[in-house]
């Protein structure tokens, strides 16, 4: 074998250095979710349990992210930071991914609730049409 055909030796990694922040924490967390949940595309702003996770899978996610980053992540931390975006910020507090686009439905719902409340206030003690007492 010619000397030019040899691969350079892999650098020796100090375990303490392996706790460094990943180049793209958002992508790292997203890939970990996809692996653990067995999905093709992990949502950025949906909670882990809403995306199909359970407590056992959260433990597996903690193990996966700890292995990938060299940093011991507590399951409770991941529970409190339950979206891909929040977990990326957990791994790198200085990381600021692009903010999610505002959800139009939430704004519309606020207008609907406001008009419903105004309608009830105008109509007195009568119940709004179409709503049933529960």
From TrEMBL:
SUPFAM superfamilies found in the cross-reference section: ACP-like
Keyword annotations of the record: Phosphopantetheine, Phosphoprotein
Gene3D superfamilies assigned: ACP-like (1.10.1200.10)
Residue ranges constituting the Carrier domain according to the UniProt record: 20-95
Matches recorded under Pfam families: PP-binding
Ranges of Low complexity composition bias in the record: 101-116
Keyword field contains Phosphoprotein: yes
Family matches, as SMART domains: PKS_PP (SM00823)
Signal peptide region: none
Residues annotated as transmembrane: none
InterPro entries named among the record's database cross-references: ACP-like_sf (IPR036736), PKS_PP-bd (IPR020806), PP-bd_ACP (IPR009081), Ppantetheine_attach_site (IPR006162)
Spans annotated as Disordered: 1-21, 91-134
Record-linked PANTHER family: FATTY ACID SYNTHASE, NONRIBOSOMAL PEPTIDE SYNTHETASE
Name the record gives this protein: Polyketide synthase PksJ
Species the sequence originates in: Streptomyces rimosus subsp. rimosus
